[in-house]
Each structure stands twice: as C-alpha cells, then as structure tokens.
C-alpha cells in the first residue's frame, strides 16, 4: 500500500469517527457535520502541511466540543502523531504548546469532569509518544542502513586492496623467477661446452627456481579460496638468499647494512624485500650490469638503495616493475625514486620503521 493510499484510509476512518456520533440517536444540525468533517478530513494533507493541518483540525475540534463531544478526537491525534514522527524539532516544539492550549480550552469551557481530563491527556500523550517512537525507529533503521553501506564499502575496498596485493606478488614472483630462469637457460648451453659442471649447475638452478616459484604461487593463490590462511611472505631476513640466487645468475651483488636494524611492520618488511627483488630482477634482465650494491641504512626511517654499474636504459620503461615498486613504497607510507646516475642506475626507497 502506497503512502497516499494509507493517508486516504486513515482519513476515511477519522471522518467516520467524527461524523457517525452525530447521526445517533438522531441527526444533529448541519453545521456540526461541517465542523466534524473539518476536524478530520484535512489529515489527508498532514504530510504536506503538518502545522497548518494541525491548527485547522485542532481549531475545528475545539469549536465543535462546545456543542457536541466526539467519541474520540481522532483527527487531532493523527496530526499530533504525524508531527512527532516526521516533523522537525522546531515544528514539534511549536505544536506542543499549541496542542496544550487547544485541549485545555476544549476541556475548561464545557466544564468537563476530572475523569475526562485524564482520558484526553492519556490519548494525546500516547499519540505523541507513538510518533516519537516511530521517528526513533526510522532514525535507527537509517543508521543501520548507513552502517551497512559503510561496511560494504570497506569490504569492497579491502577486497580491491587484496586483489592489488596478490597481483603485485604474482608479478614479482613470476618476473623474478622467469627472469632468472631465462638467464640460466641462456647461459647453460654455453657453459656446457667449456665447463660441463657449471652448465649442469645452471640447469639445476633453473629447476630450483621453478620449484620455488610454484610453491610461492600455490600458496599465494590459495588465499583466494575461502578458509585458507595467507601464506608467510618473504621479508628482510630473506635478502641473503635472494642475493645468493642473483649471484648464481652471474651478477655480483653486495649487501651492506648501516646503522642498527629496527623493528618494521609486516607490510614494510614485505615491501622492502619485494622492492629489492624487483630492482635486482630489472638489473639482471635489462641493465647489463656486472655488479650491484644493495644498501640498507637504518635511522628514523629505513632507506633502501640498489645501485648497479649497467647502462640502465634497456627495458627500464617497459612493464610494471618500477610502477610496482613505487606502489609498494607508497602503500607502506614511504617514498620512492629511480633514475640514471653517472656510471649506472639507482633505485631508492624510504620506508617507515617501528612495528
């Protein structure tokens, strides 16, 4: 049932409650019927003009009771309920004293009994209380709806962030592992001719890298299934193993740490490792460098610096490597920069410390 149909049904009931008592035991004078209709029919427009409707209905009811008392002043009660339920605070404050005046006049002038005072007071207080309760329930429902919308938005943002994280991790794992495998696969056949043992080691390294990548990808993609925990992700403690792996690919990498190491959050720990990993992968694939210095400087922040002696030009603008490193640094609350320098290419990132 629409709001207007509800209003029409309420109006019909209010009119009947005001008019029917005037028909028994015998019909009253015509102008009393007019007052009865005026005290009830306007409730149909109470949503559009609540104050005007309340004044009109209340005045008609107060005049009518001087000659004829309605069974129940339904029109004024409906208007009071509507104002309590839907009107502004200013409108409610304005109607309360006006209602008290109308009701008092309607009781004092006809010299009503004390019992009538109690009966009318309870009816009006109940109507206002019911309207106040309806307004409170509507406000609570709106608050719950807003909270649900906010939670849905937060869940959607968290899901988008998780998808981005997984995409970054997949990119880092695949590009790093495939890059090393390509280098080893290209070097293996050449090494077999001059140094068979070294050539076999190259192919063993390919298998090791491939198995490691599969394990990482399997664990990472497992997070997409409900009920599976997020796998442990590599951090700063895994840098020596990463550097050793790059060294076996033919690039000399030196790790230097300056200052006392400080606690970092899990996000910063993973971001630092992935930035170094991606930077070393780019060195291996693009720069033609033979030596790289990875420097960790601990102070109020952790400063990472990966510098190589290559030309720093081949392929640096392709793919998502630099963009991914920048995103990781910014997502962790840090900064990122990369560019050529005399004699090589340098990647720098500054990440916050403190767990």
Account of the 3D structure:
By secondary structure, the protein is an alpha+beta fold. The chain has helices at residues 3-19, 30-38, 50-64, 74-86, 89-108, 114-194, 196-222, 239-248, 266-287, 321-331; strands at 252-258, 291-298, 301-308, 335-341, 344-352. It has a 5-stranded mixed sheet, covered by helices on one side. Helix 3 (50-64) packs antiparallel against helix 4, helix 8 (239-248) runs parallel beside helix 9 and helix 9 packs antiparallel against helix 10 (321-331). It is rod-shaped.
Biggest sheet layout: 5 strands, mixed
Strand fraction: 5-15%
Global structural class:
alpha+beta
Q: Percent range for helical residues?
A: 55-70%
DSSP, total strands: 5
Mean pLDDT: 82
Unreliable residue runs: 314-319
Overall shape: it is rod-shaped
Query: What is Rg?
Result: 40 Å
Tally of alpha and pi helices: 10
Question: Roughly how many Å apart are the termini?
Answer: 58 Å
Strand arrangement across the biggest beta sheet:
1-2-3-5-4
Return the string of H and E elements.
HHHHHHHHEHEEHEE
């Amino acid at each position: 049932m629409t709001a207007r149909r509800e209003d029409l049904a309420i109006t019909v009931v209010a009119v009947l409650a005001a008019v029917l008592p005037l028909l028994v035991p015998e019909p009253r004078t015509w102008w009393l019927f007019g007052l009865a209709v005026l005290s009830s029919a306007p409730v149909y427009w109470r949503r559009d003009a609540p104050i005007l409707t309340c004044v009109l209905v209340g005045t008609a009811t107060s005049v009518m009771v001087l000659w004829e008392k309605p069974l129940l002043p339904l029109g004024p009660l409906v208007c009071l309920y509507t104002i309590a339920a839907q009107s502004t605070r200013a409108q409610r404050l304005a109607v309360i004293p006006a209602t008290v005046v109308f009701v008092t006049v309607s009781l004092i002038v006809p010299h009503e009994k004390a019992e009538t005072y109690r009966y009318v007071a309870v009816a009006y207080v109940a109507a206002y209380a019911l309207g106040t309760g309806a307004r409170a329930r509507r406000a609570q429902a709106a608050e719950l709806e807003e909270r649900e919308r906010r939670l849905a938005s937060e869940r959607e943002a968290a899901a988008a962030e998780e998808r981005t994280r997984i995409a970054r991790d997949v990119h880092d794992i695949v590009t790093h592992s495939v890059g090393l495998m390509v280098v080893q696969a290209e070097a293996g056949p050449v090494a077999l001719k001059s140094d068979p043992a070294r050539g076999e080691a190259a192919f063993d390294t390919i298998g090791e890298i491939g198995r490691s990548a599969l394990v990482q990808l399997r664990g990472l993609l497992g997070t997409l299934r409900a009920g599976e925990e997020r796998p442990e992700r590599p951090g700063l403690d895994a840098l020596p193993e990463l550097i050793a792996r790059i060294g076996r690919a033919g690039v000399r990498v030196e790790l230097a740490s300056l200052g006392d190491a400080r606690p970092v959050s899990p996000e910063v720990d993973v971001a630092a490792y992935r930035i170094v990993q991606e930077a070393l992968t780019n060195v291996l694939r693009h720069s033609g460098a033979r030596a790289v210095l990875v420097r960790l400087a601990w102070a109020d922040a952790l400063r990472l610096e990966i510098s190589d002696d290559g030309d720093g030009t081949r392929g640096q603008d392709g793919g998502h490597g630099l963009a991914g490193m920048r995103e990781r640094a910014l997502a962790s609350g840090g900064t990122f920069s990369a560019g050529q320098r005399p004699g090589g290419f340098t990647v720098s990132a500054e990440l916050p410390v403190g767990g």
